[in-house]
Design a protein that fits this description.
Elements (H helix, E strand, L loop, with lengths): L1 E7 L2 E6 L9 E10 L2 H7 L10 E2 L3 E9 L9 E4 L2 E2 L5 H4 L10 E2 L11 E5 L3 E3 L6 H4 L2 H14 L12 E4 L3 H12 L5 E4 L3 H10 L3 E3 L11 E6 L4 H10 E9 L11 H6 L3 E4 L5 H12 L10 E4 L3 H10 L7 E4 L3
Parallel strand pairs: 11-12, 11-14, 12-13, 14-15, 15-16, 17-18
Antiparallel strand pairs: 1-2, 1-4, 3-5, 3-9, 3-18, 5-6, 6-10, 7-8
Helix pairs in contact: 4-5, 4-9
Length: 335
């Protein structure tokens, strides 16, 4: 089969790889669509020591079962899935927080991912979808679930109902875009998205329909927002989030572009700021997200770009250079 392989920093290429087979309790999927995630880009840049050269990346997928060694899944059934492979018995799993599983492994990290024609995965990781759901929509389940999980987690900490909050999303990438679209669906009317890339800023303006700001040209004012989502996670965006948040507000930190930074502990303490971190999603979030996608909660998704898997190298390069207005590129294998 054909697979897009991470070969060295700043390089991916199409290679021939052996067909996967299903172990007990697993299925093999024919991949219909797979998205390029920010964490894939992080690996591509050589910044993720967990993802080593020679690995097939990719964990945002939709596929069709072609081999099954589990009675629940039949040949031809279309599914998406949880790329986190969890144990099911640790304290986190049994309390419904399997995103924090103590023993988790991951598709596209500890085993070959979905940038390929075929991929094996435990059946316990699969998530059912409507069988007529377009592949380009179903493949958005994983990143959209990240936004669903983060926003729902924030609701526990906001002082007022979400629609009443003046809200800032930092970053117009896929997670920022999906978060903004979901916030609009949840009734947030005073919404601003901050993005430094002019192409993406136009895309947010056209497809979300909210206020936008380029933080380089127009620095964000201090103490203006009740709720801030940092969907980038760099040192400068964390600083911006703390500047922008009002006393008593909530910062939701999703992105993790930089691993080290300074936090304004004085403002955090004296202004009673709530700072929340979030990691991926639970299986329940994924199932809820499939339903939201079926209900068009994220709009028509016209901002998504599709390319052939064989064009994966140029897609990674365009994302690296910021040359595409689309916050999400889906790769489509051909057979």
């Amino acid at each position: 089969m054909k697979a897009l392989v991470y070969t060295q920093p700043n390089e991916v290429m199409i290679q021939d790889r052996p067909m996967p087979s299903a172990a007990d309790g697993e299925v093999v999927l024919q991949i219909e669509a797979v998205g390029i995630c920010g964490s894939d880009m992080h690996a591509y840049h050589g910044h993720d020591p967990r993802r080593k050269p020679g690995l097939v990346l990719g964990h945002e997928f939709c596929g069709k079962v072609t081999e099954s060694r589990h009675p629940q899944y039949k040949i031809g059934q279309r599914v998406t899935g949880n790329p986190l492979i969890v144990c099911g018995y640790c304290d986190y799993c049994v309390t419904g927080r399997n995103n924090l599983c103590s023993n988790r492994t991951m598709v596209g990290m500890t085993r070959p991912g979905a940038f390929a024609q075929y991929m094996s995965i435990p059946a316990s990781s699969l998530v059912d979808i409507p069988q007529d759901m377009p592949a380009r929509v179903a493949a958005l389940t994983e990143p959209a679930a990240t936004a669903v999980h983060a926003i729902n987690l924030s609701l526990r900490s906001l002082a007022r109902p979400l629609p009443e909050c003046k809200t800032l999303v930092i970053g117009g990438g896929a997670i920022g875009m999906l978060a903004a679209l979901l916030l609009k669906n949840y009734g947030v009317s005073r919404l601003t998205v901050s993005e430094a890339n002019a192409l993406r800023l136009d895309s947010v303006r056209n497809h979300v329909g909210c206020e936008t700001i380029n933080p380089i040209a127009h620095p964000i004012a201090e103490n203006q927002y009740d709720y801030v989502i940092d969907a980038v996670g760099s040192k400068i965006t964390r600083k911006t989030a703390f500047q922008a948040i009002k006393p008593g507000g909530v910062i939701m930190h999703i992105g993790l572009q930089d691993w080290e930074s300074e936090i304004d502990m004085r403002k955090l303490t004296l202004a009673e700021i709530t700072l929340l971190g979030t990691y991926t999603y639970s299986t329940a979030d994924l199932r809820a997200t499939v339903q939201k996608l079926a209900e068009n909660a994220f709009g028509d998704l016209a901002w998504i770009e599709e390319r052939r898997l064989e064009e994966g190298a140029s897609a990674f390069q365009d994302l690296h250079l910021g040359k595409t207005p689309s916050a999400k590129i889906l790769l489509i294998p051909e057979f």
